[in-house]
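User: Fold both of these, please.

Assistant: Here is the first one.
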Amino acid sequence: MDQSSIKKKLLIIKSKPAGLGTVEGFLKNRDWTIKSTTNLKDALIFLVQEQPQFVMISIDHPNRKVRNLPKILAQAFPCCVIIFGEENSAASFNMLNTSNCEYVLYPPVTGPAVERTVNKFYKDQQAKGVTNPFQRNGAAGAEGDGLIAIKGEGGTMGAQSAQSILQQLLAGDEGNNQFTGMTAADSSATAGGPQHASNIGYMPGTNSELNLGLMQPSTQNNGLGPSWAQQGHGAGNSMGNGADESDETLNAMLMRQNGGNKAGSGWAPMPPKVRRKDRPTPEQIEKNPLASKQDSIILRGTKDALEKSCLQTNFEESEAIEDSTNISCIVIESTRFSGYLITAMGKDRKLDDIFLGKVRERLFRFLKENGENIEDSESMQLKIKEVPFEEWALEQAEFLRKSVHDGNEVAMAFFPRHDVKTTFGESADEEMASIDLNELAGDVAVEFNVYIYLPKNNKYVLYTPRGSKFFNVQKQRLQNQGVSNLHILKAEIQDLDKYRAQNFLNDKIQDFESKQKDKVVA
């Protein structure tokens, strides 16, 4: 069994949104695809749709139903189930010891420990003579029509039984994300940093040395402690599942996946379509003089990659690109040009990773074949301010190209930027990286944990947690005190890339909106 030939996909069901940030960053840097969530419903939807090879389940999850999952998943899905503990308590150790699960991780959980457990799983399978432990049960077109059968003591249950068991787990899923028993201290202990590092602190307080007023009071935490202890943003929830399924039942999701959805498309059937009658066709966009300010190699490469990657369907029947917030971004860095190549889909759909991978691969191949010295980069899923995509791109981008893919309009636009590459310096701790204070935009939520370094006692103090705003008043206070650098985990550098790209594009949107207002006034 060749591990390198199997895509590494992992689902993590954890107890607190900010937990395991370092673990997730470590694994992402080693080409793992990760869905990390506290929400049981989201986890099961991802499990059925994406079918990860490995599932990690926290024994400390506040929803007691999660404790039944390891046994059921081990029977229902061709995956390796790993249980782990997040609380360093006697109760957690006791539950882990009595779990009867073959693969267990004791706290504190680390990235290398996860990979060692994965390697042990593969070795165990080889010892048993299993060539592919992730093979589905049954032949294609057999019972369940592609759904995975569940093996029980009395034989094999069909797809309806599998669906019924998962629905029972979801039924009455009250309080799934309500951590009513979590104190500020509990939350601070899992604020997303490396828990094993002795010189990184999470307790709130003020820096008397610099008089910085590190922990700012929150206007929305209702007196429940420091604002960063109340955060509700988890790391690693980057997997896009196409349509938003947050309000759907698992039954509806299973039925939708089982019928009408093209294999590997990543998009589900849409409700009745409402289409603009006056939208420009791809040919009209190409002829628009505003759509390409110059015939550059990046323009020709984008056009070539788009044409060769799209599954062409009827334009009139396709979903139109209108106001967009969900986009994908490919970082382009060449010796002659650099910037962000962004992609939007009809009806503001989240983009399919398979399609984007084809576009990116063909684009870089075209550029290299035409003599460009360019570094490969992965695409990023971004969330920007809502904007009429085509109008904005026609005014602000270097070029805009459009096509139709699998019933959806798809448009790509290039925004030049000379400092597209993220720069960072070394920190006293090898796990940390220093970043310039000016990398942080005022009054904008950060995509990573931000720390301040106290050299006198060699401590890193969490200044702004992932998902919280870094306020302008904080930035001014730091500048007034002579602080020019802050610090982040090296494992979260990729999140800094995403943050910089979103800020850059949101500034372009703000400029576009200002010009639109000026036109109205005129």
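And the second sequence with its predicted structure:
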Amino acid sequence: MSDLKICLAACVLLLLCGCPLSAQRDSISLGEVTVRGIAPERYQAGLYVQNLDSAILFQAAFRRLDEVLTHATPLTFRNYGNGQLSTLSFRGLSASHTAVLWNGVNINQPGLGQTDFSAVPAGSFERIAVQYGAGASHLGTDAVGGSVLIENSPMKQEGLRFTAGMEYGSFGNGMFQGVAKYRTRIGENWQFAGKTQYYQADYLNKYPAAYFQKRRVEPSTTFQKGLFQDLFFQGRNGKTWSAHLWLSDNRMTLWPDAPAARELTGLGAARTMIRYGDGKWQLKGFYIRDIVDYATGDYSIPDRSRTGRFGTRAEREWRFDINKMNLTLLAGGEYAYFDARVKGYEAGRIGESRGDVFLLTRLAGNSGWSLALNARQAFVEGYGVPFTPSFGFEYPVLKKRNFLLKLTASVARSYRVPTLNERYWKDLGNPAIRPESGWNKEAGTEVTGEFGEYFGFSARANAFHNQVSHWIYWNPAANYRAENILQVVSRGAEFIGRLSYRNRKWMAGFHSAIGYTKSTQEKAYDAYSREVLGKQLRFVPLWLANWSLYWGYGKGKLTLQLHQESLRYTTSDNSQYLPAYRLLNVLYEHQLDILPVGVRIQGRVLNAGNELYFNVKSNGMPGRSYHVSLLLDGQILSKQP
């Protein structure tokens, strides 16, 4: 405990010693500085980061994050029902092997080690990106299979912009949101910007019958609400201060009309953050509180678990020019303290300190090639977390004015600190359990370009091999006690491509995202599990594909989305499975300009083919559904800053 605190304090002090103690006094404008939420992507050479484009985010005003990523990526979601828990599985690994970062802070629930993507509104973020492959050297624990990055940023124009709207759909489901964005000058040297948003979603799930095509549809209700508040102060001297607040409350009930059998799960979170940046330094402080309520039958006194995290982070960047090459270094440290009050733990209350120190380096040439060599060392009370280096490169094979073909490759070590539940849960937790560690190797090729005046295209093909040792598993042979499973190997390939056409009136495009994943247990931890060696892991489809086709004229746009998944095994010996399925969605949206307010109308038909498919619990999912949304968008005092 004391060694950890001393080590982290020394690292932070070392960084702070280099911090300029006086402000720059000249009045030359240095341009707008963006406070980075994550380690800059230039240090992630060799890894693929897929940024969801503006067209996808524009459509996502009333969409959950799991819905958006399902159709935009070759990734698998494990869905427990409409409006119920939905977790993301990267490349055949578990939900706990996915890091979810909000403005650079991992928001996975410490007890469960995962995030419910059905409770994250996609329309609340200015940037959504997906990082494929192990990112432990950049992002820390949980970034074993990949990471999801969500960020908030200020509007660029001075003035006030507001949006408000609602959606209503089949089964009595609906959503409401109101957003205000603003930006103004404060004197000659500062600008103030911000965003205030409230959202609410009600999934009543009033299905017309208890069965759909002779399979039971589990009754449930989910109520969600949340508040975002972002504030930015940006100076001409390059300094930026920002403050962020995200409050959320999600309450899901199974069998709501059966008082004796009903089951409540409530997830509440308060996430706060303060950031500072000046182009070289990035400083951050945050506090996150997670609350989990659980009750059956009588809801008057639910079992409540509280987990709080307080943390600080400091990083400093240096840049050097060396013989037509550019060398950048980013060094930093992070410290967090966890305070958990959970009735299910042996001690009832757990306190724990964690920290990280890291050094990221990038060497780039004028021709477009780059090398990245990074390293991170994490410290956890009572644990020896492995040292996690990574190396990656990008090389442009062919580079012209409207065309780029490059090769990429990366080798990275990863780790995952066991969740608090895996370590401290009464009788089933294992205080001696080892952290997971692994090696991820991947190589790919990427091409982007334009041809003619109106056509653009991009494509990315990637092959990967991810080995995870000491995989943590709730072992049924040991009364479901948490144990290390020794080794799992995930390997496969991905393809993401896009073709677009646009002129003054017409637009059209095609998008595809295809993934093939073989994920198997390679070493047995006991005699019981030897029969499952080489078998595909549960709920991991061997392949999936997303196809999206759109075309539009003027202010109207029609989109067709097709999602396909192969069968998913539900038992470790692959003796039982959920069948393959395909879902077709149809979307149409139209923009009306009624000065000074724009009106956007969107209609969606989900599962247009009325196909029967199953969730993780083997219950049938509902059939065809219809949704209509109306969004008002107004802007005043719009001018360039």
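Residues 423 and 432 are 7 Å apart (CA to CA).
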